[in-house]
Amino acid sequence: xxxTTIICSKxxxxxxxxxxxxxxxxxxxxxxxxxxxxxxxxRRGKVDKATTFTVAEQQIPTVNQEPVKSLGRWxxxxxxxxxxxxxxxxxxxxxxxxxxxxxxxxxxxxxCLQFMLLFPNFYGHx
Length: 126
Hints:
- The protein has about 130 residues and is of the alpha+beta class.
- It folds into 2 domains: about 60 residues, no CATH class; about 45 residues.
- Helices cover about 40% and strands about 15% of the residues.
- Helix 2 packs antiparallel against helix 3.
- The chain is elongated and about 60 Å long.
- This is Reverse transcriptase.
């Protein structure tokens, strides 16, 4: 199993779902890796840093403790895009400078721009 997302509206529902999934995984002779998972609890529109969940008798780290990258985007407890905007601009600037300095002819630089910077997942890269 590559990835599973659980979205519940209540804390006890989430705990019950995690217990059921853990039982199912045990039945399948598989185990969760809580250290590779993240939890995010939102109460009244704000990140609740106190709520934690466990699976396989191990605590799942919160997004506050360890940010997570999903579909090429980083998520942290701030839940704001302002930092991501600055990171994206910096990465784009550095990448464009690297492409410009690479010594390739113009048409190959365009290829690098298109397939390595703008659409990196075209060839399965992330």
